[in-house]
Amino acid sequence: MNLIEEINKLKREKNALILAHYYQSDEVQDIADYVGDSYYLSKVAMSSPADTIVFCGVKFMAESAKILSPNKKIIFPNPDAGCPMADMASADKLKDFKEEHPNAVVVCYINSNTDVKSLCDVCVTSSSAVNIIKNIPNEEIIFLPDKNLGEYIAEQFPDKKFYLWDGYCITHKKVKAQHVQAIKEIKPKAEILVHPECEREIRELADFLGSTGEIIDYSITSPSEEFIVVTESGVLHEMKKKSPDKEFYVPGTTMTCINMKKTNLEDIYLSLRDNINEINIDEDIRIKAYKSLENMHILSQRRD
What is the stated purpose of this protein (predicted)? Predict the structure, then answer.
């Protein structure tokens, strides 16, 4: 059986759309109709005429798509593909944290679970966070779950008081400065591209610091021909497609997210064939979580 042919046949029969995050395996990215970051893919799902969305990523991403598209069937091919960072923030602990800081606006990274989003004032992405917080007048900010991204954002706002959750991405945390410097010694002309989920010692080495999509865009427009890419290794597939004549390096074997790599073609095929692994969210929680995503859109608009 040719899985690719069977998946494409099921897509046509069921009016389905396959979405894949940049960190998915090459074969999953290649079968997808759209590849991108989690919020972009959720917006694609919302605007698509497809009845069924197959979301290849980690669980909070599929949940975000369901929050924005409650009337569509959102299939999550591998239910074991969770996000450890998202799981580091629980709704119960957040309630307590909010009581400790009653004057703070609660800002959550989109890499968070639905019940946590439902308790937050606004969601952000790594690319939109700084602009959104510029548009928040409050002086106190609770930021969760990623302490490293929160620390990076807080550096842009010395006049605001940030209360940072003690969470982190296990993949971005693995990389150390010596891993990056070892490649730089061999490839001295290579530019260092870093995601802000990395710790400060890595961020300080960056020639460019940005979200996954921003890193890809930068590598396309930069005159440099060599790059050290300090984010999940799956992004190299898209970077090589966009810039086939350029060279990309990652710091050893440290930059692979095992959860992002759990989904395979068989998972996609079986979930489509058998209509299994559908995402369902309690409507009351969904509505509250939707508000935080809606505020992300509102507050990301630049103000004069």
Answer: Catalyzes the condensation of iminoaspartate with dihydroxyacetone phosphate to form quinolinate.
196 is in which domain, residue-wise?
176-249
145 marked among binding-site residues? no
5 annotated as ligand-binding:
no
Residues 111, 133: Cα–Cα separation, whole Å: 17
Instruction: Give the integer Cα–Cα distance in Å for 61 and 124.
Output: 13
Q: Return the number of other C-beta atoms located less than 10 Å from residue 210's C-beta.
A: 18
Residues (pLDDT < 50) of the chain are 303-304
- DSSP-assigned beta bridge partners for residue 17: 53
Q: Are residues 56 and 183 in the same domain?
A: no
Q: Consult the annotation and say whether 257 binds a ligand.
A: yes
* CB distance 255 to 215 below 8 Å: no
pLDDT in tens, 76-92: 999 999 999 999 999 99
Question: b/e string for 264-301 if b means 16 or more Cβ within 10 A?
Answer: bbebbbebbeeeebebebeeebbebbbbbbebbeebbe
State the Cα angle at 97 between 94 and 100, rounded to 5°.
Answer: 155
Q: In CATH, what number is assigned to the domain containing residue 104?
A: 3.40.50.10800
Q: Does 83 show up as a binding residue in the annotation?
A: yes
